[in-house]
Amino acid sequence: MSPLNTSERVRFFSEDRWTAGVVGLGYVGLPLLLTASESGLGAIGFDVSESLVESLGGGNSHIDDISDEQLRIGLDAGVEFSSDPSSLKGADAIFICVPSPLGRNREPDLSYIRSAAETVASVAQQGQLIVLESTTYPGTTEDYLVPALAEVGLELDSDVHIAFSPERVSPGDDMKTGEIPKVVGGVSDASGDVAEAVYRRLVPSVHRVSSARTAEMAKLLENTYRSVNIGLINEMAQLSHELGIDIWEVVDAAATKPFGYQPFYPGPGVGGHCIPLDPQFLAWRAREANFSTRFIDTAEQVNSKMPAYNVDRITRLLNGAGKPVFGTEILGVGIAYKRDIADDRESASLDVLAELRARGAIISVLDDTVGADRILSHGYEPASIDDLSRYTLAAVLTDHTDVDYARLAAEVPLVFDTRGVFRRLGIESESVVAL
Question: pTM of the prediction?
Answer without folding.
Answer: 0.90
